[in-house]
Design brief:
Strand content of chain C: 5-15%
Strand order of the largest sheet of chain C: 1-2-3-4
CATH superfamily of the largest domain in chain B: P-loop containing nucleotide triphosphate hydrolases
Radius of gyration of chain B: 18 Å
Oligomer: heterotrimer
Number of domains of chain B: 2
Chains: A alpha/beta, B alpha/beta, C alpha+beta
Largest interface: A-C, 74 and 54 residues
Number of helices of chain B: 10
CATH architecture of the largest domain in chain B: 3-Layer(aba) Sandwich
Strand order of the largest sheet of chain B: 6-7-8-3-9-10
Number of strands of chain B: 10
Number of domains of chain C: 3
Largest sheet of chain B: 6 strands, mixed
Structural class of chain B: alpha/beta
Order of helices and strands of chain B: EEEHEEHEHHHHEHEHEEHH
Order of helices and strands of chain C: HHHHHEHHHEEEHHHHH
């Protein structure tokens, strides 16, 4: 885990095509991804396939990764910020087996980073691709569950209703209610779900040098934020969006600027806080 | 001229809901469309407001820049923009015009937010100000409209509609579902607001008394046709068409 | 000193080894063979093939064994497998009119050309658990003769009382497994979604239409179970060749339609088709198919079963189980945000209460 050098696994399983999907499917996916990049923040429907991992466990991200992965890529997979959580391990093993690419835990060494619910603390650079796993791509789904209607709302950029929701939160509880998956406006045009990343990570999306791709397998949508694109969290001028983190320092590396997991240490209220980004934390120790 | 309808026709099967209807509306003018249910007056309102397409004829609107727009030729995006900005619609049933799951203040603020206002404090101030103007207690701003009486809901709908100062408001029986005593107060309120803001209004009503109180001009409809139109006092005091005479007489008798 | 949880890799290995052990059961007993499953649990195999969208009895039987009898898990295995297969050709539409009948019943006619054929059915059995040893049953006295029999819908159509199906829009049939589902969805895609939809979900929805949620007055025009030939037309040959038979169940559910200004009052039908013998599935599917026509027929859409987005986006059990079960995955990052948010809101609430003004907060900042 502390090894910063990419690890090359044994040869890939020859029973499957490179990266599991057949070439025609990957081409179709790449066309969808190109369209998504061309219309930042706009959800593009695609014919998602069943993958050997369940829907809701990252099939959208896996399909995007499979479509863009090349033999010389170096892949990093994180879940909740960590490289060694079970689902991250499972997805990394999947690509080990079907693509035989090198994998790494080092954010700086990776060319493709597939993530669930976090953006790494180490700033990404140009040439890297961050692939998000997205459970519900539609930012309006709690206000309007009908896809036919939300499509119309996006087409007309008629987002007053979303702002009303924020207004109601502030009126009722003094602050915006969403702590994660807080909606963003991309390029001043499309309202977008950033996937369930904590609000703490939202500002990292703004003008990120890396390409951000979002895959929702079960909902069959792909969307994208091209490098250097403006990404604004929805807010009010007098109630600006405020990323929140636990007001502590990491117990392991001492960081006061990273997002922290809260660890329950005993049954008497004992708590400690440690970085959710394991690679970042280990590198600082 | 702010709105001009020419030769509108619309049939539902064998029923001619609109049959060659033409009318003009001037800035700041209140036009009442009266008639019994089934006369076509509500259909006319929907066609004028772009919610329904006529089989024939067209509706022209002179927008804030003075440009003449044909309503039937607008894209949905353009029409929605008009809806959010220059136009307003007051429904007979306030539950159709309000978001019942959103607070009173949120209801009034929605049009401000749709128009691009992103300052919470300003939205609150405007909402409070408009609640006062329609004689609602601003202290109830964070309450759900479900806790309001029918008359209060209707006043809230009016505040929500007028907060962005539209130029043209469509009203569909705005006092329809209310008690008589509440109706009178509400009509008075509407008259004051319309005059203050210089709104152009198309008011659809079967209530001759409401038309007399609010309207500068009256259009009388029957079976999808305009049978008589003119200045309010003239039409009501000296009705020429026998149907208008009947309509006016029935009010006097009641 | 706290050490972050590690060893996800080792934990997964150990869990999967345990799973394999549990799946096998008592090693003193012989392992089930796929042939036994395909032969003796044939309705489970049928269901897995339908919901797995893949007609292969042997693979479905293997999947059921691997899934420890969890049929949704087995359908999932089959689906993931079918996506790795190259696609050579699309078959011609099955001619269910030419079906070699094993079972065929109609509730709308006492007798009809081709007759009522009960066939192998649970109907009219007494549901008493049979604890006695089971001697080998005698083979059926007479197999159904296999002659083609006319469809009930055709009988009604002769009188002009059955709504004709909308004309074929032409072009290739859209494929749900390759393209996203658009809304409103054309009937071809609706039927595909229902055919692979969860039997239990469709059963509940179909049932709801009978109980007033959708105003259905259904009659089983016909249920037929039997073998149909599958034909393909390879472009290099240019003519049709039969590549085999499949056992399918078809249900035509007759329903009244009040008529409109342009359409006379007439019967309409809902259609159900499932692989193998799957009457419950085919019947539920046909009820829901009819309910989903509401929009096209100008009927008021009021009930869940009539709502295309509601039905089609929630009927796929592989999608549904994935998303429900994904709640098991760690969510501590989102939950941490939620914790901090709740603490912040709670602190504000406590402060306002202490200040003696619990009701109003102007949220000034």
């Amino acid at each position: 885990m502390t090894d910063a050098l990419p690890m090359r696994p044994a040869t890939r399983d020859a029973a499957y095509n490179f990266a599991y999907l057949d070439e025609a499917t990957k081409r179709a996916l790449r066309r969808t991804i190109l369209k998504a990049v061309a219309i930042p923040g706009h959800q593009i429907p695609f014919g998602a396939r069943e993958m050997p991992l369940p829907y809701g466990w990252g099939t959208g991200g896996i399909q995007v990764t499979a479509a863009i992965l090349g033999p010389r890529d170096v892949l990093k997979v994180i879940d909740q910020g960590a490289d060694d959580t079970t689902n991250a391990v499972s997805i990394r093993r999947f690509f080990n087996r079907v693509a035989g690419v090198a994998t790494t835990t080092d954010t700086r060494a990776a060319t493709i980073i597939q993530t669930r619910h976090r953006i790494p603390e180490t700033p990404l650079r140009e040439g890297q691709v961050l692939v998000y796993q997205v459970p519900m791509p539609e930012p309006l789904f709690r206000l309007e569950p009908r896809l036919a209607e939300t499509r119309r709302i996006h087409a007309l950029a008629d987002y007053g209703l979303m702002q009303v929701k924020l207004y109601e939160d502030i009126a009722a509880q003094g602050e915006v209610g969403s702590s994660y998956n807080h909606p963003v406006m991309v390029g001043g045009r499309y309202l977008m779900s950033p996937s369930p990343i904590p609000g703490f990570d939202n500002p990292k999306m703004h003008r990120m040098p890396a390409l951000q791709l979002f895959g929702a397998g079960r909902e069959k949508k792909i969307y994208a934020v091209p490098p250097w694109t403006e990404v604004r969290s929805l807010d009010f001028e007098d109630h600006p969006f405020r990323p929140v983190r636990a007001p502590h320092a990491c117990s392991l590396c001492g960081s006061t600027g990273s997002y922290l997991d809260e660890i329950v240490t005993d049954d008497r209220g004992g708590r400690m806080f440690v970085c959710s980004d394991t690679d970042y934390c280990e590198r600082r120790r | 001229m702010i709105l001009r309808a020419g030769n509108l026709s619309l049939a539902f099967g064998a029923v001619r809901a609109l049959d060659g209807v033409s009318l003009d509306l001037w800035p700041g003018e209140v036009l009442a469309v009266v008639g019994e249910s089934g006369s076509g007056k509500s259909t006319l309102l929907r066609v004028l407001a772009g919610q329904m397409r006529p089989d024939a004829g067209r509706v022209l609107y002179a927008d804030a820049t003075g440009a003449e727009r044909e309503i039937g030729a607008l894209t949905e995006a353009e029409l929605r923009r008009l809806w959010r900005s220059e136009w307003g619609f007051v429904q007979q049933n306030p539950r159709d015009g309000l978001r019942m799951g959103v607070s009173a203040g949120g209801n009034v603020g929605e049009r401000l937010m749709a128009a691009g206002c992103r300052h919470y404090g300003t939205i609150r101030e405007e909402a409070a100000e408009w609640m006062r103007r329609v004689e609602l207690d601003p202290a109830r701003m964070d309450d759900s409209p479900r806790t309001f009486s029918g008359g209060m809901q209707q006043r809230l709908q009016i505040a929500r509609t007028l907060v962005t100062r539209p130029r043209l408001v469509f009203m569909d029986e705005p006092t329809g579902g209310l008690d008589v005593s509440v109706q009178a107060k509400l009509l008075d309120l509407i008259r004051g607001l319309v005059a203050d803001l210089g709104l152009a209004v198309v008011l659809v009503t079967h209530d001759i008394a409401a038309a007399r109180l609010l309207a500068h001009r009256i259009v009388v409809m029957r079976h999808g046709r305009v049978v008589e139109q003119g200045l309010t006092d003239r039409v009501l005091d000296d009705p020429r068409h026998e149907y208008t005479q009947l309509l006016v007489a029935s009010v006097l008798a009641a | 000193m706290y050490v972050a949880v590690k060893g996800g890799e080792a934990a997964i290995e150990a869990a999967h080894a345990w799973l394999a052990h549990e799946r096998r059961g008592d090693p003193a007993l012989p392992e089930l063979t796929p042939e036994q499953i395909a032969g003796q649990l044939s309705l489970a195999v049928d269901r897995v093939m339908s919901e797995g969208s893949c007609h292969d009895r042997e693979l479905a039987a293997l999947a059921i064994r691997q899934a420890r009898g969890d049929l949704i898990e087995a359908a999932f295995l089959l689906r993931a497998y079918r996506n790795t297969l190259p696609r050579f050709l699309a078959a011609e539409p099955l001619d269910t009119g030419a079906m070699r009948i094993r079972r065929r019943i109609s509730a709308t006619y006492k007798d009809l050309p081709g007759g009522q054929v009960l066939g192998p059915t649970f109907d009219y059995t007494h549901r008493l658990i049979d604890t006695a040893p089971r001697p080998a049953p005698a083979p059926p006295e007479r197999e159904a003769d296999g002659a083609a029999v006319p469809r009930v819908s055709a009988i009604l159509a002769q009188e002009g009382l059955m709504a004709g199906e909308a004309p074929d829009p032409g072009g290739p049939v859209p494929d749900l497994t390759r393209e996203p589902l658009p809304f409103p969805a054309p009937r071809a895609l609706r039927l595909q979604a229902l055919a692979r939809g969860d039997e239990g979900f469709l059963l509940g929805l179909g049932y709801s239409t009978q109980r007033g949620y959708g105003n259905a007055h259904p009659f089983v025009g016909e249920i037929r179970v039997g073998d149909c030939a599958v034909a393909v037309t390879p472009p290099e040959l240019g003519f049709e060749i039969e590549i085999g038979d499949v056992l399918v169940t078809e249900c035509q559910m007759v329903n009244q339609f009040a008529g409109s200004a342009t359409t006379p009052p007439q019967f309409t039908r809902g259609y159900g088709l499932a692989m193998g013998q799957a009457e419950r599935k085919a019947m539920a599917m046909s009820l829901v198919d009819r309910a989903l026509m509401a929009r096209d027929l100008g009927e008021e859409v009021t009930a869940p079963a009539q709502d295309q987005e509601f039905v089609l986006l929630h009927s796929d059990n592989v999608e549904a189980t994935g998303f429900v079960e994904h709640l098991k995955l760690p969510h501590h990052v989102d939950f941490q945000s939620e914790l901090e948010k709740l603490r912040s809101i709670r602190a504000r609430w406590e402060a306002e209460r202490a200040a003696g003004d619990p009701a109003r907060r102007e949220a000034a900042e």
